[in-house]
Amino acid sequence: MKKENIVLVGGGGHCHSVIDVIEQEDKYNIIGIIDLKENIDKNVFSYKIIGCDDDLEEIFKKCQNAIVTVGHIQSNTLRKTLFNKLKRIGFNLPVIISPLAYVSKHSLIDEGTVIMHQSLINANVKIGKNCIINTKALVEHDCIVENHCHISTSSILNGAVIVTENTFYGSNAVCKQGININGFIKAGSVVK
Amino acid sequence: MKKENIVLVGGGGHCHSVIDVIEQEDKYNIIGIIDLKENIDKNVFSYKIIGCDDDLEEIFKKCQNAIVTVGHIQSNTLRKTLFNKLKRIGFNLPVIISPLAYVSKHSLIDEGTVIMHQSLINANVKIGKNCIINTKALVEHDCIVENHCHISTSSILNGAVIVTENTFYGSNAVCKQGININGFIKAGSVVK
Amino acid sequence: MKKENIVLVGGGGHCHSVIDVIEQEDKYNIIGIIDLKENIDKNVFSYKIIGCDDDLEEIFKKCQNAIVTVGHIQSNTLRKTLFNKLKRIGFNLPVIISPLAYVSKHSLIDEGTVIMHQSLINANVKIGKNCIINTKALVEHDCIVENHCHISTSSILNGAVIVTENTFYGSNAVCKQGININGFIKAGSVVK
Question: Which of A133, A175, A177 to mutate to test the interface with B (most CBs of B within 10 A)?
Fold first, then answer.
């Protein structure tokens, strides 16, 4: 099967992890990275930085798939802006799922979301657009994660939790089942 | 190979996760769910609630395997009562192991216990009857987990820990190696 | 393919876990264990304790691969002494990687290090000699872990963290991205 092309938008640390996921998934051919103007022609692993934001309309002519690979710690503003820009241009933002992750067939994941290595989406979960479900994170049965959230590395959302749009849920955070979570949750938090 | 029939006793959130495990294990055919009388004929995913506790003796005539799918957070009384009732009627309570979990061949697991997705039972471990080893939990080498315990999501039992009967060990809890644990351990605890 | 021989140095609890990893990896044939003189001829699982430290030069004549299977909690002095002794004699200290672990092809791991079950080494990581990356531990993108460290069970090193030589990073510890970590980090710590 011929692999489709994809362009990655953002060339930092999170991009390293996403490259590893896309390579393992073996479904897309990474044609290059979009980053700051001053980084053009530098490499991220073996992939070239082929342009900056201003070049996206031109790139769309040869590559219709894109994914936001900027991270989300202090703020998700840049991730949202890029997601909306990509949509406006007409890009398809696929769901990227690591073959080392598990996603229940009873669950739904929306466009532009990446499901990183060894994360787990249990049964009857809904995950919105442009989210990061980071490495080893657990989203338990009956959860809802709204758009533009980052569920960080090894964090745990227990059963039937609702995570509001734009939430950062920190690394190794854990929470009571059935609650609502929003805002900025620090790494290692126990949320009740 | 023809799959054997199984009936699930308890139709709440934990049942959603157990259904996902049983479907992935692909060893048993779920004939239906037992729940409260007022829920009869409702569905849990594509499975019908076919009866309440009073119907178990009748159901046993056509299905000899059962598993308790009620959760255990505040109390395990209902799980124990149901387990004992099922045993009295004559049901076989198999061990259910997710194909995404790992159980060392040097370890033993007793009847009616479920080993959920991506959990890990390391070498030289003994786990009792009617336990939940929940999603992503880790039971390290040389541990003993007695009957009717719930080792919650992403929790960690380090080497040679003994967990006494009826213990609830909360989500993302961690403990020192070689200690005894019993009672109700809150999510996110560090037990020394 | 004929399996190569290996001798394990240290017959305690950590050895139980390493045996499970080596058996699953199915690459080495364990010829026996080295432990204290008074334990010679006892068994660890089905493997005999065939000698003590003083016998290593003799054992090297029939087995050129060795791995340190002593644990590292309070101190790593014994692990370092044994590693250096094995190297002096001429032993090859292979990297042992559980088939249940994931190591990015963009990462490097040095001799004598064991990567235990369900641990994950993400992209662009360097791990030194004689380390334990214990069960379910996560080493995120761009980390450096120097020699003789123990990254304990289910702990999380977030992106671009540097862990100095001899560090103990406790079970379920988590840390901010991009920081330096050294010394003794207790189980369940949140390091900023």
Answer: A177
Domains and CATH numbers, chain B: 4-89 (3.40.50.20), 96-183 (2.160.10.10)
Strand order through the sheet with C144-145:
C108-109, C126-127, C144-145, C162-163, C180-181
Report whether pLDDT(B1) > 80: no
The answer to whether the CB atoms of C13 and B118 lie below 8 A apart is no
Look up the pTM and report it: 0.97
Residues of A in Cβ contact (< 8 Å) with B117: 102, 120, 122
For B13-36, write each residue's pLDDT tens digit. 999 999 999 999 999 999 999 999
φ, ψ (nearest 5 deg) of residue A83: -55, -50
Determine, for residues B187 and A174 on separate chains, whether the beta-carbon distance falls below 8 Å: yes
The string of pLDDT tens digits covering residues A163-192 is 999 999 999 999 999 999 999 999 999 999
Q: Distances in Å between the alpha carbon of C68 and those of A23, A97, C4, C86, C131? A: 34, 37, 17, 9, 10
For B73-82, what is each residue's pLDDT tens digit? 889 999 999 9
ipTM confidence = 0.97
Tell me how close the Cα of B61 comes to any Cα of chain A, in angstroms: 30
Using a CB-CB distance cutoff of 8 angstroms, which residues of chain A are in contact with residue C136? 136
